[in-house]
Amino acid sequence: MLMTDSNAHLQTQLQDRNAVLEAEVEALRMQLKNTEATLLQREKMAALGELMAGTAHEINTPLGAIQASIWNIHKSLERSLSYLPQVFDQLSPELRSEFQQLLDWSQTVKEPESSREERKLRRKIRQSLEDLGVGEADNLALTLGQMGIVQALDPIYGLLQSSQATFAVETVYNIAALKSNSENIKIAAERANRIVSALKGYARKGDTEKKILANIGEGIDIALTLHHNQIKHDIELIKQYGDVPEILCHPEELLQVWGNLIGNALQAMGGKGTLEIVLDRTEEDLVVCVTDSGPGISAENQAKIFDPFFTTKPSGEGCGLGLSIVTKILDKHKGRVEIASQPGKTQFTVSLPLGDANGKGLSPESLSGA
């Protein structure tokens, strides 16, 4: 009886101790989960900090374009409002028709993309004016070239021969500038909006538990927008996006995957080379291949590159957590990342399960050559 009571007491003590240990393990598990989430966000913010200098420049560029365009619109509108009454007073009905023709042309043409293209167009216009026997060919060719007029000038021959030619062409130029500068403002505003949206998307913490349907190509494009300042000069960007479905995922976390892989590729190339991104699918997976033309990664480093705190970057340029976090995010998505590297070509291949998505995709072998 005494032995039975002793065993029961011991069993109770063990059960109590196990309960305490289980509670401690659960507390440690929650602490580890919170630590990982904090580490993920800190690494994201650290990467975002590195992007900010270039991003600030990218935002300043469209804002500068908007400011310049608004000033140009103000001046062009001022001139146009003062010139138009004089144009209709000085031009005969026949010349007004030609003036309208030139005005119509100016609203549909594409402006020269470079000063070299403009000079080439100006020479061509000057030759056409000289062939028509038009006086002041140089001045008229300059203004018509700036407008990007490429049509044969015969329909407005009378206007160009008249004494009001320079005045009429400059008036059309000022009116055309209103439309041109309005387009510049629209493009610049859209560009600034894309950059701000990309920053907000990258910094957003998101719901760490609930997956949502998301377009992976859009996430990759956000990452490319954040790195645009590094890409636009001597990097050739090749994008090949196949017809892939949306997948259930944590898009804000995957954005960190794309940002890390693209950022590492650009850094490896030292600002010059080819960055290729292929988005496609196999029967079971959505596949993203990020390939750069950098010097490559040694076999020894490839074996350690996904380890926490391992980095080949100079001191102060990284703590070695980027690719480790990439693997953790992909593990959470039941995905994987693989590397293949040789001098001149390093490719990271990310595979994410499609789930119940249907449709015939590419074979893994066809993607490996991207």
Tag the structure with descriptive keywords.
single chain, alpha+beta, 5-stranded mixed beta sheet, two-stranded antiparallel ribbon, 7 strands, 370 residues, elongated, disordered C terminus, Heat Shock Protein 90
The SSE order reads: HHHHHHEHHEEHEEHHEEH
Low-confidence stretches: 356-370
Q: How many structural units, i.e. domains?
A: 2
Oligomeric state of shown chains = single chain
CA radius of gyration: 32 Å
Number of strands: 7
Strand order of the largest sheet: 2-4-5-7-6
Number of helices: 12
Using the alpha-carbon principal axes, give the shape.
Answer: elongated
The computed structural class is alpha+beta
Query: In this structure, how is the largest beta sheet organized?
Result: 5 strands, mixed
Calculate the mean pLDDT score and round it: 78
Distance N to C terminus: 77 Å
Fraction of residues in helix: 55-70%
Strand coverage percent: 5-15%
